[in-house]
Amino acid sequence: MTFVALRYDMRTTRGGVDHAALYRAAMEQIRWADGLGIDSVVLSEHHVSEEGYLPSPLVMAGAVAAATKRINITIAALVAGLHHPIRLAEDLAVLDHLSDGRLMVVLGIGYRTIEFEVFGADRARRGPLLEELVAVLRQAWTGEPFDFRGTTVVVRPKPLTPGGPMLAVGGSVDASAKRAARLGLPLFAGDDHPELKVIYQLECERLGHRGGWSVIPSGPMFVHISDDPERDWAKIGPVALADAAVMRSWQTAGNRSLTESEATTIDELRTEGKYQVLTPDECVELCTRVHTLTLHPLLGGIDPALAWQSLELFAGEVLPKLQTS
C-alpha cells in the first residue's frame, strides 16, 4: 500500500488565510489523520520568512505528540547548523517520550544564507556542523557523561527509544548521499535523481555500512483531490503559483530540490505537474506509480474549507481503494 503523509510548513502567501486559522486547521487535520490511520505527519523548518514558514518544528511536534496516539511524526528537515547540539539532544529526548517513540528527524545542512547570518552560524561549515551534531546526539543519548567542548556533561532524560529517535540525513547532491553513508544513517533525498541512491549504496558498501537504506521522492509535491478539478484549480492556482515563486527565489547555486518549479503562469504550473488537482480515481491511479503520497492540504494558506473537501474525498473515495489494493 502507498505510504501516505500529511505535510505542513505553515506558510501563507498573499491571499492565503492568516496564521491563526492555519495553525488551528493544521492541528484539527492532524488529529483527524491520526484517527483515520494516515502514516505520518511531516513538519519542516525555515526561519525569518515573510510567509511565516514554520520556524519551530520541535514546538509543533510536541503539540502533535500530545494531540495524537499513533501517527508517526517526521521533522524534515531540521537545519542542523542552526541548533545547539546539547539543547537539541535534550529537546529530542523529551519529544521522544512525549510521542511514545513516534519521532523521526531528518537533518539537513540548510542553504538560505540569511538563516545562518541571523543565528550566527558558519554557513561554510554546514557539513561539519551536521556531522558534529550527529556525534553529540549519539553520545548524549547514552545518558553517560561525556566531553563536550572541554566540559563534562550528562544529558537527561535518556530517550524512550534505545539510542534515541531515528535520525536520517537529507539532501539533494552527491555529498549528501556520501555524508549519510559515512554517518551510518538513512538518506532522505530532496530530489528525485536516481543516482543519489546509487551513490549512497556504493559508499555504504565501500565503508562496510550494512543495512543502509534511502528514500528517493516520487510523484508531485502537492496533490489536491476534487470532484471538479477545473473549479478548484481556479481557487488553488494563484496560491500555488505564489508558493512556487517563493520556493524558486530561495534556491541557491548547486542546490537541487524536487519542490523547485520553473512555472511563471498557472497554465505552466499545471503542465509541469509538480502541483496537481486530481479526481479521486486519478489519485488512486497515481498511487499505483508512486511509493509515497504526500498531501499538503494547507499549502500557501489555502482556505481550510477547501482543504477539508480534499481530505474528505481522500478518506471516502481514495483510501478505501488503497487499503484493498
TrEMBL record:
UniProt entry tagged with the keyword Oxidoreductase: yes
Name of one Pfam family that matches: Bac_luciferase
Keywords linked to the UniProt accession: Monooxygenase, Oxidoreductase
GO CC annotations, alphabetized: cytosol
Gene3D superfamilies, A to Z: Luciferase-like domain
Domain Luciferase-like: residue ranges: 19-239
Gene Ontology molecular-function annotations: monooxygenase activity; oxidoreductase activity, acting on paired donors, with incorporation or reduction of molecular oxygen
Statement: the UniProt record of this protein carries the keyword Cell wall biogenesis/degradation: no
Protein name, per record: Putative Luciferase
Annotated source species: Candidatus Neomicrothrix parvicella RN1
